[in-house]
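Have a close read of the entry that follows and walk me through the local backbone shapes. See right below:
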Amino acid sequence: MSGAGYQVTHIDRIPEPPGEKEEGERDWHAVRIHFGIQSFGVNAYTASREGEIVGAHDEADTKHEELFYVSTGNATFTVDGETVEAPAGTFVHVPDPASTRSAVAHEAGTTVLCLGGAPGETFEVSDWEQKYDPASGS
């Protein structure tokens, strides 16, 4: 749905780019690509079952800080070895790009929204995401 100067959609209507999902993995909602957002990174992930929802990673190469929001369900985040319980409604901010972060969903249907970008820098699409983004020219 779109109006003068805005777009509206439900998370279930944001398609996952083809070819990357294996049986039983989380669903990737390519929010940034769907809306054509170019100023910051934003994706959402919904767990198909209990287990990993955000894979262990850091953002040292992109210098991105990340903000995670658990919109439904319940997850445990691990940031630099420390665990944080994150039921629905919880924000987890990881400002240090070198920090290793991951999350595990405690139930199917857990959804985590992730926003990121490098402070003070123009947003650039991450290498792994470029192959799915028609606007990146790849």
